[in-house]
Design goal:
The protein is α+β, with helices and mostly antiparallel strands. The protein has 2 helices and 5 strands, in the order ααβββββ. The strands form 2 sheets. It has a 3-stranded antiparallel beta sheet, with no helix packed on it. A two-stranded antiparallel ribbon has the order 1-2. A hairpin with a 4-residue loop joins strand 4 (about 95-100) and strand 5 (about 105-110). The protein starts with a helix and ends in an 8-residue tail after the last strand.
Length: about 120
């Protein structure tokens, strides 16, 4: 029959191993925690794919080009609504325009004409 000290040593090894395994799975855990606290943390292990980082400055739909998708802070898919800027060059200048849900921006830049000697 095993001595009480052997059971305690085995439980201590298992607790340390559980804490290390939780850390490997991305869950904050410390071997100094109680066994019951570590067991509860098993439910914090992310499942079902990649765990995404928390973004410090997440984009909104109006900041992503229309038709493109991204994942928001809550793991939801968002579809972009921003319009792409278009440039048109002519013989006399460039017209740049962009628009979104709230506004239209136009910018006309005249071309510098080259001087020719006659």
């Amino acid at each position: 029959m095993a001595e009480l000290s052997e059971y305690i040593a085995a439980l201590t090894r298992d607790r340390d191993s559980l804490a290390a395994n939780l850390q490997t799975m991305g869950v904050e855990a410390d071997a100094a925690e109680k066994f019951t606290s570590l067991v509860a943390k098993v439910l914090e292990i992310a499942t079902g794919g990649v765990s995404l980082p928390v973004l410090s400055n997440p984009a909104t739909a109006s900041e992503i080009l229309e038709g493109y998708e991204a994942i928001d802070q809550d793991g939801n898919v968002i579809t972009g609504t921003a319009q792409q800027t278009v440039n048109m060059e002519t013989g006399t200048g460039t017209l740049n325009y962009a628009w979104d849900e709230e506004s239209l921006m136009l910018m006309i830049e005249e071309s510098e004409e080259e001087e020719t000697d006659a």
